[in-house]
Amino acid sequence: MSTPTVEKEPASKVELAPGVGGGGEIPTFDVTLRVRRYNPEVSDEAHWDEWKLTMYGTDRVLDALHKVKWEHDGTVSFRRSCAHGVCGSDAMRINGRNRLACKTLLKDLDTSKPILVEPIKGLPVEKDLIVDMEPFFQSYREIMPFLINRGHEPTRERLQSAEERERFDDTTKCILCAACTSSCPVFWTDGQYFGPAAIVNAHRFIFDSRDDAGDMRLEILNDKEGVWRCRTTFNCTEACPRGIQVTQAIAEVKQAILSRKV
Amino acid sequence: MQVHKYDVVIVGAGGAGMRAAIESGQRARTAVLTKLYPTRSHTGAAQGGMCAALANVEEDNWEWHTFDTVKGGDYLVDQDAAEVMAKEAIDAVLDLEKMGLPFNRTPEGRIDQRRFGGHTRDHGKAPVRRACYAADRTGHMILQTLYQNCVKHNVEFFNEYYVLDMLTVDEEFTVDGVTRIRKRVAGVVSYDLATGELHVFQAKSVVFASGGVGKVFKTTSNAHTLTGDGMGIAFRRGIPLEDMEFFQFHPTGLAGLGILLSEAARGEGAILRNSEGERFMERYAPTIKDLAPRDIVARSMANEVREGRGAGPNKDYVLLDLTHLEPAHIDAKLPDITEFARTYLGVEPYTEPVPVFPTAHYAMGGIPTNIKAEVLQDNDTVVPGLYAAGEVACVSVHGSNRLGTNSLLDINVFGKRAGIAAAEYALTADFVEIPDNPLVETERLLDTMRSSEGGERVAQIRQELQDIMDANVQVFRTEQTLKEALEVIDKLEERYTRVTVQDKGKRFNLDLLEAVELGFLLDMAKVMTAAALHRKESRGGHFREDYPERDDKNFMTHSMAYKDPTATETSGVRLETKPVVFTRYQPMERKY
After folding, report:
1. Which domains, from first to last, does chain B contain?
2. I need a surface site. Which of A46, A221, B172, B475 has the fewest CB within 10 A?
């Protein structure tokens, strides 16, 4: 991993191909955004509201939601922060699939039909697209998501080979957006199930060569609400905005439990 | 009114807040208040690395790091603070590794290091590999690791509690036989987003770690939620703000969007080209070229565009070229940012250069503190019990221009210091009695906005503010553009009094939240512009076309902006100065 950066100096001047770097006029198009509304201060019933919007080719679903909130109806409520897919605030169901609103380009959706936006499933809805995240974070906390090392603390860093580091690289990408857990049919019917995100975060430590508490985490996930509830429907992998191979991570944890018992 | 009592209250749960909480939580009863969830904080968006002179891959030492920081900040850095940061950087990185942070590794299994802008070997001789990193998601890994350790230490979080006011009392104190008045902190007022209820948190110590204010600009790498709340609260309560004219524009934002592409791309060998295919940084910084500090690169890019060598149909951006790098190298070291280029611009970085332009990135200024992270209410009076760390604070380790990676370092070094100091103070101090009617200011603010029928829209005013800041207070500034900006901000502020919030409910009223945030943005835009008008020289991130030279005779000082309604010429912002701390480096011309 430590190969020096390019030693060969790039050319001072190159011929650029015509039209290089993209750009050009950004096309506009019309979309219909249909949002699932719920506000218990107003009514116990949820309903759908719909807006027709003119949007740009580079716009995302989050831009459409902002346009509604900022220009049409200030009561439409949703969480968001970074707006480029790293903070995990704006996971929602877009046309029936769990997505981050800030990473879903409108042009990639079928704009001939209304775009359906709903809260993620399996967590209590608080208002419009906002759900109670506490049960989700509770499961996360239960798998002891922190490095546990029982050895002497070295003065310098603990050594870890690049290969050992690579072993759990995929699961370090998790941003705790809950897209995976709330896409899981098992979680929808059984909120006690730890869910994919908690297992992904357990995986991140179980396969970290510096960690000594893998056995304890495997024991926790060997529970009846643990990994064995997974039915490998791959919804979680499909939903993950960070491209984590979630189902594979769960399978590796299952395998680790089995091989430990042998 | 609900009242909570804690030894220490930390406002903000990004890197600085959580680093403070890990220390404070083990020493004193601590609560962390955040308007988000901790893992949503914008520390997670930082990409490239965190510098420390570990010397794992080549010779390095903390004195070189100190020098680079001072020079990078164009000598406006307080050198005692820079020294603390560069020295403690080494332990800050090792602390994170021991907490579990998965750094990239060398073949020997040590923490790997790479190049970054302005970080050099032996006082500017050549770029040095100093940045410790985890692919191009170092900030994400820091945020996750700190949150994991907060879980480990059972830190008590109040999520989606938006702090709106700080409670202080005035007290007399005597120094050298002279009796003076100083503030003491009693606690904070917070708005629970889920219920709309106000909560008072009484605390012996309060730590502000609430981040930056990038949303005063239209094109920015900052999150929607970075609206200068902490700086705004302090300013409204009579605390000055230091060096607010210095705002960093990161060279490589995705053109038109502002989404950050890490400097690590250039650290790994990417270069900038203009429409003629020319590597133009060879002209502006002949020695370290594309790895010059951000202020210089951003200005060079803007200059290329102004002189007609911008790329694209409107000639309004330049190009970041990675096409000479091996795709495998890009995948290993820069996976996230190349994905951003694909997702948001539809550009394939393996084969095409990526359109980029400077994006508003980081406030060098903020709430003034000393190296113990104690907040100052003037040039030397400490407010007992009040601390600040991270982007909200100004120590000042970044001076007029922050070097890449030094913000992740700042939050760890000074977050830790703030947490320890706040807890230790709380263990010896008594609670300050909460003033009568602690909610009066906050209720007035919220009620006005909830009941107003003036018809002005938050989004409209905010957009006009961001437009004028992008046009007039960006990379190039003049007296005329700044005065014009102040006039516009004054008018927007007047319209803001008639802002109407559509959502009248209590539950998750984010409409109201955005209206409150806009008030802070207006205040901070005013302070930044007034301070920029006051500084008639060019230094670091602040470039005045009407005063293009650095002027050490008149301006080798920090600026201190106070809220003062009598300062009508500068929209109620009074500017004073504060001396810069020098230890070992005398100002030199800044060349790279």
Report:
1. 255-358 (3.90.700.10), 439-574 (1.20.58.100)
2. B172
